[in-house]
């Protein structure tokens, strides 16, 4: 997330919390796609991580990129922690371990997403090359230890770093060593939100398998195809997972608000100060009885910021975030956007996708979520291999994109971007499988070649 919200309007009722979500509704004619991706920076000369400070650090990289793009700096105290394109809506941010993130602008189609990505990567290379910085296109840093990874000077991350070890064993790995790609989609009504949320949650393990790209940790295979996905299973059970409540009768904005109210808070921001209230209740903040800030009451900013600190596999804000995939190269980033646009933005495809998953039970979904980081497409659900489910999902997505009929200058529709995923399903092998084969063969059981062969 590039920066925390600043809106001091008081919140006094549960209805206002519900309205904050419902205000995100848009007519289908205004639906957009927002694509966010992280990439792990490293020094090309010696394959070491990039610290924040120094003549060739993350701060210098952000300053260079600001000059390249003209985007405005985002500050945390005296530290530049991101860049904002205030006209276009895009932003750059840094994750706790220095992962460099583009939060893309809301765009009308996948073609526009690809153009945005190409422009961003070109500008980032121009900013990074004089500093000797490259970027990995892997879902987890393959070599550096948790302790050897720099920590970025961002106030909310300092609070999270103190809280994470209290609620899970792998939260710091999530913060420091993983990289993901997310796709943000719109909804037109509460019922539309619920349908998309349910389909998105059920099919996140399919995305995890298709985009699996984090098989190495600490310089060797880690036993998983998507270690990034496995790490999320032991990060913080209060705010992560498959969110089974979404499949219950009567689920909607109110149920989500009630769940979010009971998720422990991280911080309250007042002015430029982040107050550590980790573990506290938003209900107490609403009533002015937060122990850490007596008498302080909730604002719109507090609610928006709190909504950004939960991490289910699909997250509801004023749009829906699809969160289940490891990052990959540009073609895979485009494929992620195309997959969800095809499944969720055509009525026929959305209905077919729901038919695909509606018979799965909560226990089956949870079992699949637990199995897929290790097994990938070889996992199974409802008596079917996940490879077969993925093939059907891709067929539905292709039909949805063809029905959308959004064409580029050459007359091609968005289905062209699904080709890398269709190749993965046809071969039954993710990129993680291919990288493990390289490790056992040409790489001679060394991950160092990843720093030249797995880069943006």
TrEMBL record:
UniProt GO molecular function: ATP binding; glutamate-cysteine ligase activity
Broad enzyme group: ligase
Pathway: Sulfur metabolism; glutathione biosynthesis; glutathione from L-cysteine and L-glutamate: step 1/2
Catalytic activity: L-cysteine + L-glutamate + ATP = gamma-L-glutamyl-L-cysteine + ADP + phosphate + H(+)
A Pfam family annotated for this UniProt entry: GCS2
Database matches in SUPFAM superfamilies: Glutamine synthetase/guanido kinase
Annotated GO biological process: glutathione biosynthetic process
InterPro entries linked to this entry: GCL_bact_plant, GCS2, Gln_synth/guanido_kin_cat_dom, Glut_cys_lig_pln_type
Assigned EC number: 6.3.2.2
Swiss-Prot/TrEMBL keywords: ATP-binding, Disulfide bond, Glutathione biosynthesis, Ligase, Nucleotide-binding, Transit peptide
Subunit structure, interactors included: Homodimer or monomer when oxidized or reduced, respectively.
Function (record text): Catalyzes the synthesis of gamma-glutamylcysteine (gamma-GC).
Similarity field: Belongs to the glutamate--cysteine ligase type 2 family. EgtA subfamily. Belongs to the carboxylate-amine ligase family. Glutamate--cysteine ligase type 2 subfamily.
Protein name: Glutamate--cysteine ligase
Organism taxonomic ancestry: Bacteria, Pseudomonadati, Pseudomonadota, Alphaproteobacteria, Hyphomicrobiales
């Amino acid at each position: 997330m590039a920066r925390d919200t600043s809106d001091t309007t008081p919140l006094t009722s549960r209805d206002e919390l519900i309205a904050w979500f419902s205000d995100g509704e848009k007519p289908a004619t205004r639906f957009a796609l927002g694509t966010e991706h992280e990439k792990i920076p490293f020094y090309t000369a010696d394959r070491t991580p990039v610290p924040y400070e120094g003549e060739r650090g993350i701060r210098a990289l952000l300053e260079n990129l600001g000059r390249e793009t003209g985007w405005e700096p985002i500050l945390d105290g005296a530290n530049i922690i991101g860049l904002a394109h205030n006209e276009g809506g895009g932003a750059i941010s840094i994750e706790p371990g220095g992962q460099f993130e583009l939060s893309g602008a809301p765009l009308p189609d996948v073609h526009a997403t690809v153009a945005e990505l190409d422009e961003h990567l070109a500008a980032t290379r121009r900013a990074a090359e004089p500093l000797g910085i490259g970027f990995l296109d892997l879902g987890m840093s393959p070599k550096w230890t948790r302790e050897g990874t720099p920590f970025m000077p961002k106030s909310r991350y300092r609070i999270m770093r103190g809280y994470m070890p209290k609620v899970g064993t792998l939260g710091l790995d999530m913060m420091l060593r993983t990289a993901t790609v997310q796709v943000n989609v719109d909804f037109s009504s509460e019922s539309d939100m619920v349908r998309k949320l349910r389909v998105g949650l059920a099919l996140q393990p399919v995305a995890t398998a298709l985009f699996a790209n984090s098989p190495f940790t600490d310089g060797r295979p880690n036993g998983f195809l998507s270690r990034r996905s496995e790490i999320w299973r032991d990060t913080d059970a209060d705010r992560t997972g498959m969110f089974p409540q979404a499949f219950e009768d009567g689920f909607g904005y109110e149920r989500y608000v009630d769940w979010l109210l009971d998720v422990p808070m991280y911080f309250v921001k007042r002015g430029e100060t982040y107050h550590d209230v980790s573990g506290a209740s938003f209900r107490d903040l609403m009533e002015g009885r937060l122990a850490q800030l007596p008498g302080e009451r909730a604002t719109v900013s507090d609610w928006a910021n709190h909504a950004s600190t939960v991490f289910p596999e699909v997250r509801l804000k004023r749009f829906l975030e699809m969160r289940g995939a490891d990052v990959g190269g540009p073609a895979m980033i485009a494929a992620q956007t195309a997959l969800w646009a095809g499944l969720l933005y055509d009525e026929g495809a959305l209905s077919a996708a729901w038919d695909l998953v509606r018979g799965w039970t909560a226990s089956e979904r949870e079992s699949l979520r637990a199995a897929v980081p290790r097994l990938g497409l070889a996992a199974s659900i409802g008596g079917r291999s996940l490879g077969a489910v993925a093939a059907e999902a891709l067929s539905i997505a292709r039909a949805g994109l063809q029905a959308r009929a959004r064409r580029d200058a050459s007359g091609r529709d968005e289905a062209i971007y699904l080709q890398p995923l269709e190749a993965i399903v046809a071969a039954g092998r993710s990129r993680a499988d291919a990288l493990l084969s390289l490790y056992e063969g040409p790489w001679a059981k060394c991950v160092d070649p990843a720093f030249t062969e797995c880069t943006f």
